Amino acid sequence: MQVSVRLLKVVVFMTLSLPLVWLGYAVSRELSNPGVVLGADPGEAVLHFFGDWTVRLLLLTLSVSTMRRLFRQPAIGRYRRMIGLFAFAYAVLHMLSYLGFLAEFEWRIVLEDFVDRTYITVGISALLLLLPLALTSTRGWQRRLGRRWRRLHKLVYPAMGLGLLHLLWLTKDGYAEPLLYCAIFAGLMVERLVDWRRRT
């Protein structure tokens, strides 16, 4: 049993790493043939790549509890922490891409963007909400915080909402994908409300 659990964790880890493998391939192609994979602005493409995967993995993290209840498979829950940490890692890479490619690590530009550009204010706020969740994701912190741990980790909901708002504001055309993400998030919230009402 332990061997199969560890093997599945390795499979999940490798699967969640596949976007990074693809990006590595894309960057190597760009170095030899600029514009062939990432387009005219590779920096912006990388920025959006990490942002999109952050949203997808956050939705997948939230889906774990729903799938666990719907399929009555509690074991699914043991992979939620890993998926959540990958989502946070992609969010950090998204932020670093913004700092490097757009702000060029000029903190004056970052501060101006944070004040003047609402979509950046929202995006940075979402990342800040995810930070304490990543820092307290271990079982040790879960034991230390007790019931407060669950309340703290409900910050994932406003973080997800802000992330979707950030994506919608950034989208210039082709709203189908962002709206699909919004619909999935709404469905997950409805399922949680139904489960809460059933239990109470």
Helix content: over 70%
Which spans have pLDDT < 50 for at least 5 consecutive residues? none
Overall spatial form: globular
For the secondary structure, the number of strands is 0
Q: How does this structure look, described?
A:
There is one protein chain. The protein is 82% helix and 0% strand. The chain has 200 residues and is mainly alpha-helical. The protein is built from 9 helices and no strands. Helix 8 runs antiparallel to helix 9 (176-199). The protein starts with a helix and ends with a helix. It has one domain (43-199). The chain is globular, with a radius of gyration of 18 Å. The chain has helices at residues 2-32, 42-70, 80-102, 107-116, 118-135, 139-145, 147-152, 156-170, 176-199.
Q: What are the main properties of this structure?
A:
200 residues; mainly alpha
Question: What is the strand and helix layout of this fold?
Answer:
Elements: H1 2-32, H2 42-70, H3 80-102, H4 107-116, H5 118-135, H6 139-145, H7 147-152, H8 156-170, H9 176-199
Helix pairs in contact: 2-3, 2-8, 2-9, 3-5, 4-5, 5-8, 8-9
